[in-house]
Amino acid sequence: MSTYPIGTPGTPWGETEKAQWLAQQKVVRSYQEEVLSKLTTIPAGFELKQYGALPYDESRYPLNAVVPVSFTDNVPNILVTGGVHGYETSGVQGALKFINTALAGYQQKANVVVVPCVSPWGYETINRWNPMAMDPNRSFFADSPAPESAQIMSFVQSLGITFDMHIDLHETTDTDNSEFRPALAARDGVTHDNWNIPDGFYLVADTPKPAIAFQEAIIEKVRAITHIAPPDDNGKIIGADVISEGVICYDKSSLHLCGGMTGAQYVSTTEVYPDSANATPENCNDAQVAAVTAAIDYVCQQ
């Protein structure tokens, strides 16, 4: 059973345990300095739109998207999201780097909407969960109690368009085994075995529509930036079957994942491995940018 320091093994957390967990969380980096300050200059043809704010501290945690000033007919509609899990740094910083280095090149080719940090409280405290011990990336459903998920879903719906592609930027880190899976097991009063942390980049496609050629196009471009994760000794990555090199599948809608919220034809979740001996923060950010540009290029060519 779980040996996590909060709660009783085998018993799900109540409000007391969740409050104990929250009391242990500390702000260790600045959303203002590391994220908002990088959104002061937006490429021509795009604008910064505040779509909400987290109720924990609305002035500290505004929620922002970069959107086209005007949407063009008859081009693909693209959604890029980062920081659904706030602790996954390159998901946020990669999205910001894409905005600042590559987004302008797609102004005439696609309607690209970028939400670089869905969970700013999680970014500041380096957390997978929000303050209520909820995982925003398991909370994309109607009337979601997670404000991170509810507010971006409302924003996406307000745009009144059908998205052709959605890429969601994530990381898999060694802390998944040392902190986050033990915390999840303790919270839910169950046992979770540790899984082998993949050494390298991989993608999570959507089980009902895996779009293998689309995933392969992303893998091929990222390969020039960082290594692709091999399967483990059981031929799996994080417990899932490998359907193509560096590609596994989750059913994004049934799991209430961010990648399932648009119903797009082309969907992928990136997973960068920042704890590799061969990785640097910049390398991880570059891998995210490569994944985004490869994905958009593929869809624009269809």
Automatic annotation (TrEMBL):
Residues 27-302 form the Peptidase M14 domain. Keywords: Hydrolase, Metal-binding, Zinc. Pfam families: AstE_AspA_cat. The keyword Ribonucleoprotein does not apply. InterPro entries: AstE_AspA_cat, Peptidase_M14. Its cofactor is Zn(2+). Signal peptide: none annotated. Belongs to the peptidase M14 family. This is M14 family metallocarboxypeptidase. It comes from Alteromonas salexigens.
